[in-house]
Sequence to fold (171 residues):
Amino acid sequence: MAKDKNYSIMGHRHHTTKTLGKVDSHNLRRRQEKNVDPAKTHLNRHLVYQAGRFVLDEPAKYKRNNRIANLLKQRIKSLDITGLQAGQAVVMEINLTVSPEWMQGKTPAQVNELLKAQLEWAKSKYGDSILTADLHLDETTPHWHIMLIPLVEQVRKVRQSKRQKEAGEPQ
Fold:
């Protein structure tokens, strides 16, 4: 029996505030891409993660490519995040797809089931870190672009002074 060579694929990259406009432009299809079928672009879905669930988003309400930047500012404020520095990676993009071989012979229902499972996995893995999820159905292989804040909880240790160590005081 031949080994199954069908794979789920996940890629990621980090973005600074300077690159968010380009990412939005791509995800919302504000510029023509070579590998996109314009006749299928209306099938794409744009979701925003709010209060623990995905909500359908309307890209037309954004005058410029600032959707992710606006959502990022709101989320940073709500989470009371401080200390961001210029040039710092503020958003991580996760791409979820499958190999083209997996797509062969699949019914729309099977593809839809996979796409739902991928989105649920991202929700369970990243939760409130998620800002948006954009589904592209206008390319050869359907895929998600999931934008999230790469949150890392940092606990700072309080260092003992030499006198405290010598006195045997607990930290």
Summary: The two ends are 60 Å apart (CA to CA). The chain has five helices and six strands. The helical segments are 20-27, 67-79, 100-103, 108-126, 162-167. The first helix runs from residue 20 to 27.
